[in-house]
Amino acid sequence: MSKRRTARNGGYLAAPIGTNDDNSNNRDEAIPMQRLSLGSRRSLDSSAGHSSTFSVDTPLMAAASDLDEAADNTRLDIPAGPPPGQTAGGGSRGNARTEPLNPLDNNFKKSRYPRNVVQNNRYNIFTFLPLVLFEQFKFFFNLYFLLVALSQFVPQLRIGYLFTYVGPLVFVLAVTMAKEWHDDHARRKRDNEANSQKYLRLTVDGPRVVPSAKIRVGDLVLIEKNQRVPADMVLLRTTESSGACFVRTDQLDGETDWKLRVAVAPTQKLTDNAELFGLHGSVYADAPHKDIYEFEGNLAVESGLSEGAVTVPLAAENTLWANTTLASGSAVGYVIYTGRDTRAAMNTGSAKTKVGILDSEVNRLSKILFLVTLGLSLAMVALDGFKAVWYVTLFRFLILFSSIIPISLRVNLDMGKSFYSMVIERDAEIPGSVVRNSMIPEELGRIEYCLTDKTGTLTRNEMELKRVHMGVMAYTLETSDEVTRHLRTNLKELAEEADGAGEARRDTPLGTGHGRARRDMPQRVFDMVESLALCHNVTPAEESAMATEGSTHDAQAAAAVVQEMAYQASSPDEVAIVKWTEHVGVTLAGRTLTTMTLRLDAAAAGGSSTAPLLTYDILQVFPFTSESKRMGIVVRSRRTGEIVFIQKGADVVMGRIVQYSDWLDEECGNMARDGLRTLVVGRKRLSPQAYARFDEAYQRARVAVVGRAEAMQRAVAEHLERDVELLGVTGVEDRLQDHVRTTLELLGNAGVRVWMLTGDKVETATCVAVSARLVRRGQLVHVMAGLRTAHEVQAALEALRTAGDCCLVVDGDTLGVALDFFGDEFAQAAAALPAVVCCRCSPTQKAAVVRLLQRHTRRRVLAVGDGANDVSMIRAADVGVGLVGREGMQASLTADFSVNQFSYIARLLLWHGRNSYKRSAKLAQFVIHRGLIISIMQVVFSALFYFAPIALFQGMLLVGYTTVYTMAPVFSLVLDRDVSAEIAMLYPELYAELTKGRVLSFKTFSSWLLISIYQGGALMMIAVWLFDTEFIHVVSIAFTGLVLNELLMVALEIRTWHRWMFWSILGSLAIYVASIWVLPAYFDVSFILSAAFVWKSLVITAVSSVPLYIIKAIRRIYAPPAYAKLT
Fold first, then answer.
1. Which residues contact 547 (CB under 8 A, 6 or more apart)?
2. Neighbours of 240 (CB within 10 A)
3. What is the rounded CA–CA span in Å between residue 428 and residue 72?
4. DSSP for 980-1017, written as a single string
5. Which pTM value belongs to this model?
6. Residue limits of the P-type ATPase C-terminal domain (predicted)?
7. Mean pLDDT across the stretch 1076-1101?
8. Of 848, 873, 849, nearest in space to 863 by CA
9. CA 4, 15, 240: angle at the middle one, nearest 5?
10. Around Cβ 832, how many Cβ atoms within 10 Å?
């Protein structure tokens, strides 16, 4: 059993919490410059002098009897020093550390630990040039042109102008380096903003403002409410006398539930922060590691406390991890880990340079083209008989035919990427979208797996109680006024009593109706609402000024308090339920560790001048765990002294506890199919004798040395969980983002398999998967959860293989074992499923799943997230998309693409991704064709003229061919589209065709190769056949036919004409005609103006291009492409 789960079952204890009310009155005068006690704050503990022990998931409200028991165990027998092998006084071994507790005893001059900086940039001033050049020249494409350019510095190998070969390479490298510098500069700027955030560091002279980057191990840092924690800390003090506080961990683990953290008891008891500098001792922390649920350490105080030397253990509940946010009060922390040693940094993968699959495919094609070039060169030398210094001739032919691999291909593709990025950012249908990596827009057209976070990505993280079913009646938000009306009816007498009109004492509604076979509806409604208002671990936020028992409010004051009401809880589900009870008229007015107060606003709204208050003593709290799947509470009404046990939980366990009802299973199934999280609510009235018997058995179980958790659960089951009355079922919805269902359906029809990776519980994630239609109606949900051995996981994988079409739900423990021992088997079984849900995933596991899919399937993976816990997954994926949401900007800033909501993903892939990939594929093949055709003409020319390595087209003709004469028309292909955006979104199946890679394949490449051979051979052969008396005339005819052929080929490839396409073709033709007079060295103007030149050029052009127009027309008639049927 993992330590995380042991902690939840009470397997190990944290430092006890103590309160010192004797010193609380002086707290406001402790630190004049920055008081820790910020205004009036309501204590979370109503009794002075108690100590309590909390485990990781123990709720804030523990029973009073638990506090008494824990108080007896305040002192634990723990060694005062570090473990064996660990040196005190700042030494370290294996990165574990022991540092002085008092900053005055610390020597900060020695930098033993990493700086507390966020560093996402890839380069520095020394590594920029070598790393960028390495990234460029590791591709064969660029390396080849580097060698060609360098060869031109050798006189024997030089052909034509040096600029012809060196210039394009320098231009490409300059553009690439400029883009890399710009992107890295933006990353560095964002890092500097994070590193310059201001914090208060406590010193003996008072608090000082320091940037985050200046925080060191051993510092005492004051964290305010809603402030991000800058480094990993041990929690020393909070503004609550109990030492408790809540933190939001959504940026660390993706869970939006608030987590309870408790301060170390000896330091929490101090009067003020200044007394921390009177303590002398040490803090030991284990070596940094990734597990955010584990921490081992101790705090030893040798002097400065009235009770003498004290050593207390430290666990995860005593820590504040970096990137979490303090949600309540303010706190003082002792820094133990900084920079890359923090849990957040260790769970965040390093940034990598992403290379698109199109670039890899073009790189492979360039190798084939090099082999073609080498083969042609060897053929020329061989046909010439390997004469003289044949190897020099071979190299000259290699350089002469180097245009087969056109360097302009890289320029065109990079310019195309920038254009696609601009189009995405200017799309009015997906406003606010930002392209942060402009090198991979084509990757959006090849996605086959989409791995998405849940909270904040698919859902809004806005829980809402949608339905309450009580057997006879069901209520929704639309009928909540009926609930209020029933409450008013049932509370009428109680409201009169609160106003002084009632003379006789009356039992509270909690005590009425028990024993009746059938109660009237108002009473049933009140019982359900009251139970929901009591059975939870919610605490009203400290901003709301709560009334104490016995005080009165007028109607306006009560209304004002209701408007300001806010709640804290470890689960947003419970907040949603408490908000619903407040909405219908029963408000959680106050809560301490031992009491709970409800305000009956429904009675005041029904005509009473005041809202009656009901106060209950909390006797026991049984927290929710993933094993028990239920929580319970035992309360005692102060009005009647009646003791009631209330419990709520999943239907799978509550169905065996509550009394049988024929409607329970059916209604739970209906809610689950609607994507609602169901909770079954029941209660049981206890006599004082029955509770005493339970308490005796429970206390014996709590002190058991062996099997404590099992004994405690057995006591609850035997004494409480029998004959529990069924009250009803609630259905809570985690509201989805706009159009999530439609988006997931579109992605599914497009052939994209969606995986949901979340830190939430199995039940929660399954409900969201159903609600979002990730699980289709009637589809089997196959659950693999709670498996911790290799044998269990292997058996589960065998069962999964035979499960057929289903949605797999797997929890974090099972996933960890599967990744460690059966990675390939798990990937093989899961990759074929239409949907997979991974629950309780750590950030590291998310990234591991991405890499597993990439390695096993060789397919492109998209990762979508909105929190810092998704950064590792986003970086590991082929394409990362970050959402701008509640969980901050870190995912958005790290991602390749940033969007405002999940529904934009569909248009990003189906429209922009499809266009980007198809356009780049066409552009790449056309540029290759443009280089091939001129090289084929050179081959024919050399073969006809005695295999001499002499250039057919030299100087400006060669440069102009790939620039001013054809570049604009060829690049205009990035404007082409085969279907409209509406059709692309209406028929997502069009996207599925792209994932097969048929747009750019060896088949299409071979087609273009054959076209180039035909056209190049035809142009050169006919030019020679029409050979005139002057060689310059041959060049003029051949080059004119070549330019006209390329312009006609561009027109042939266009499917949807754009005005810029039309003008680019006409403009290029005009430039070519004008250059005839500008370049007399290459053209004989008198011959150009003759009729012979005109008819010969037209014949050459017609022979080379007209057959392709005929073939295309025939294919559109007999074998039209899929998109042609939709236009």
1. 553, 561, 589, 590, 597, 599, 613
2. 26
3. 66
4. -HHHHHH-THHHHHHTTT-SSSHHHHHHHHHHHHHHHH
5. 0.72
6. 894-1120
7. 87
8. 873
9. 110
10. 11
pLDDT tens figures, 217-264: 999 999 998 899 999 999 999 988 878 888 888 777 766 667 888 899
Residue 609: per-residue pLDDT: 58
Sign of CA dihedral 453, 458, 461, 464: negative
In this structure, what token pair is assigned to residue 749?
């029809």
723 annotated ligand binder: no
Stretch among 491-500, 671-680, 1027-1036 having the lowest mean pLDDT: 491-500
Q: What is the pLDDT of residues 427-457, one digit of tens each?
A: 999 999 999 888 899 999 999 999 999 888 8
Q: Which two tokens stand for residue 371?
A: 């082999």
Q: 407: which residues sit within 8 A by CB, 6+ positions away?
A: 145, 168, 169, 172
Amino acid at the residue 924: A
* Residues 332 and 220 sit within 8 Å (Cβ to Cβ): yes
CB atoms within 10 A of CB 1114: 10
Marked catalytic residue, from 66, 453, 878, 978:
453
677 is in an annotated binding site: yes
Q: Is 574 annotated as a binding residue?
A: yes
Start-end of H helices in 639-778: 651-654, 664-673, 688-702, 708-719, 740-749, 762-771
> What does the H/E/C string look like for 563-630?
HHCCEECCCHHHHHHHHHHHHHCEEEEEECCCEEEEEEHHHHHCCCCCCCEEEEEEEEEECCCCCCCE
The mean predicted confidence, pLDDT, of the chain is 81
Task: Determine if residue 137 is labeled as part of a ligand binding site.
Answer: no
State how far the Cα of 1068 lies from the Cα of 967, in Å rounded to an integer. 8
Residues 6+ apart with CB under 8 A from 39: none
Among 614, 467, 650, 621, residue whose Cα is nearest residue 535: 621
User: Which residues lie below 8 Å from residue 372, measured CB to CB, with a gap of 6+?
Assistant: 404, 1009
Mean pLDDT of 19-23: 36
Give yes or no for a contact between 725 and 682, defined as CB atoms under 8 angstroms apart: yes
The three state secondary structure string of 89-106 is CCCEECCEEEEECCHHHC
Structure-block tokens of residue 806: 């289903």
Closest CA to 461 of 772, 736, 771: 736
How many angstroms separate the CA atoms of 45 and 18, rounded? 10
pLDDT, one tens digit per residue, over 575-602 is 899 999 999 989 998 888 789 999 888 7
Collect all residues with Cβ–Cβ distance below 8 Å to 1069 and sequence separation of at least 6. Answer: 1043, 1044, 1047
Residue range 693-740, pLDDT digits in tens? 999 999 888 877 678 778 888 999 999 998 899 999 999 888 888 999
User: Which residue is listed with tokens 């789960």?
Assistant: 5
CA–chain centroid gap for 39, Å, is 37
Contact predicate 799/808, CB 8 Å: no
Residue 908 DSSP class? I
Measured between alpha carbons, how far is 550 from 697 in angstroms, rounded to an integer?
35
β partners of residue 92: 97
773 is in an annotated binding site: no
Cα–Cα separations (whole angstroms), residue 664 to 469, 670, 720: 9, 10, 21
pLDDT at residue 468 in the model: 93
Reduced to 3 states, what is the DSSP secondary structure of residue 200?
Answer: strand
Record the tokens describing residue 267, joined without a space: 């330091």
3-class DSSP state for residue 913?
helix
pLDDT (mean) for 476-481: 85
Closest CA to 759 of 866, 864, 869: 869
pLDDT, tens digit, 9 for 90 and up, residues 972-1017: 999 999 999 999 999 999 998 888 778 888 899 999 999 999 999 9
